[in-house]
Specification:
single chain, alpha+beta, Aminopeptidase, eight-stranded mixed sheet, 5 helices, globular
Length: 207
């Protein structure tokens, strides 16, 4: 295999409410604790690791980084210092300056808070302003209605639905809904996210 074209290098993205740090093996216990808040692995349409599978999940994410140019992060809540989830850049197409944001999950206590909103703002800002991306995709299961609504609230537009797109570990066939933000839309999406973040500030404990 030839050398992977690296669009994304390891970077820490820090905001007021959240910090995104490159994933490492030392995050195993913290990630397992975060996933336990809401027992997120029980949601059949997501890929959150169960406690016993966290180490293998980390190894797979790091292999994606090494072999495919992805960049997995842990999400840290600045108010508490706790790791509260994970996200990543992946499906990176360096030659076309495109990537996808996904494999995202948050502990139940920070879902729909400033932490979640700011993570998307940090990731999109870095993609468009530092990496000069022309488009950023988001994909989710057709049945993950919460995720679909959250992606739409970002200002992303739905591109379409990939029917029978994936075979899940239990044999279920997944339809995948594809959304994107393109470079020309980024200024308006950035303003919208900053507005949403400002609204959440007073509603988020210890924000």
């Amino acid at each position: 295999m030839g050398e992977v074209m690296r669009l994304v290098e390891p970077v820490t993205l820090e905001g007021r409410h959240a910090t995104l740090e490159p994933l490492a093996r030392g995050h195993e216990a913290a990630l397992a604790a975060a996933a336990a808040d809401g027992e997120l692995w029980r949601l059949w349409y997501t890929g959150v690791p169960a406690p016993a599978a966290t180490a293998a999940w980390i190894e797979a994410a790091l292999a994606m980084r090494e072999n495919l140019g992805a960049m997995p992060f842990v999400i840290r809540d600045n108010a508490t210092g706790d790791v509260v989830g994970s996200t990543r850049y992946f499906n990176v197409e360096g030659a076309h300056r495109r990537l996808e944001i996904g494999h995202t999950w948050h502990a139940q206590r920070v879902q729909r808070t400033a932490v979640n909103t700011e993570c998307k703002l940090l990731l999109l800002a870095h993609a468009f302003e530092a990496l000069d991306c022309i488009a950023v995709e988001f994909r989710t299961s057709y049945f993950n209605f919460q995720s679909r609504r959250a992606i739409e609230r970002l200002g992303a537009k739905q591109d379409g639905i990939l029917r029978n797109h994936q075979i899940l570990p239990d044999g279920t066939l997944r339809d995948t809904v594809v959304f994107s933000v393109i470079a020309g839309e980024w200024p308006a999406v950035k303003r919208h996210l900053a507005f949403q973040l400002d609204k959440r500030r007073d509603a988020t404990p210890n924000a």
